[in-house]
Amino acid sequence: MTTMAGENIHPFRIDIPQADLDDLHARLDRTRWPDELPGVGWAYGIPRDYLEELVRYWRHEYDWRAAEAELNRWPQFTTTIDGANIHFAHIRSPEPDATPLIMTHGWPGSIVEFAKVVGPLTAPRAHGGDPSDAFHLVLPSIPGFGLSGPTRSAGWEFRRVAGAFTELMERLGHHRYGVQGGDWGAVISREMGRTRPDRVIGVHLNLLPNSAATHEPGADELDALSPEERERTLASWRRMREWTRERQGYADIQSTRPQTLAYGLTDSPVGQLAWIAEKFKEWTDSRDRPEDAVGRDQMLTNVMLYWLTGTAGSSARIYYERAHADYWGAPPEPSATPTALADFPRDNFIPLRHIADRTNNIVQWTQYDRGGHFAAMEQPDLLVEDIRRFFRKMREPASG
Predict the structure, then answer these.
(1) What local confidence, expressed as pLDDT, does residue 1 receive?
(2) Active-site residue (options: 90, 133, 174, 183)
(3) Catalytic annotation on 50?
(4) How far apart are CA 2 and CA 36, in angstroms?
(5) 319 is catalytic
(6) 0.90 surpassed by pTM
(7) pLDDT attached to residue 164
(8) Which of 200, 235, 363, 396 has its CA 20 to 30 Å from the CA of residue 221?
């Protein structure tokens, strides 16, 4: 399970100083709690009673050292690309002919998202699967996020990240490979496939950028669709309208004033926790709390990677950089690389096939009846099988 082939690749092991954990505990003990309106639930943001319970668990029961040891089971490395430190796990399959696959997280995620899918993807034989479905996995942290942060220069928008990750795969000796991602990982993965079809054999996504309704559909537009797609288009518009009215505020802040936000989140662990845990409730297939959809410890380990690295601000900057890039607002550029979408119903947007087909080479489109934005955490078995099924169609002799 070694990673070699490239230049300037250094082994890495997570080893957080105890002083950092002691500081976290002291801050949690001194939390200054705000007031709250009675009976409003989640309408104004994350409820205080739930957050107090979560903080008590974080302070007194959650075990970072156990999580750290679990993460350190993955071979991890760092390398410098385009002036940025890139952290990644490189987990080779025991199957020599496995297909290389780079999986990219989003915000507010991390490589922790993939903990439940690594085993089945790299070692299907040990998980009741077909060994021909094996993958060599590369799990990078996006520049500015967690162990790849903070970035030290402006301009790290998704196209630059895609270029850096393409270079990373070259350094690892993977010259033909698949890409997979959701959230920002989907945007980055699609860009890798669009720009390097000579390298990328297929793009598997659990969120498809620029595929939802962005305006209220007119009669002529609806009349051209099948009844099923017509209903889906109206539902997509309703969800987009609700998103714009109720849920887009975090993105507007991170797109305009990430530095101002960073002071509060970097100084207050409860602030950082609230900022992220709210999204794990709103974006998942949950009922009353995030734990309906994702494991509490896994969610807290994800939060810890932001807190311990102080990357609340630098991870938010990817929103700013995209919103201020010269291509912002332009139509998406088409991609000819074969693309698959695993559509989980509680994700933020409802994708539309007739829009997606305009700029993507869709060869697999699967709608599921459960699951949300964090598919690898919420429905790992469904995601694994969807990835396997797609790359069976794409498979060719691996050269990396």
Answers:
(1) 38
(2) 183
(3) no
(4) 52
(5) yes
(6) yes
(7) 98
(8) 363
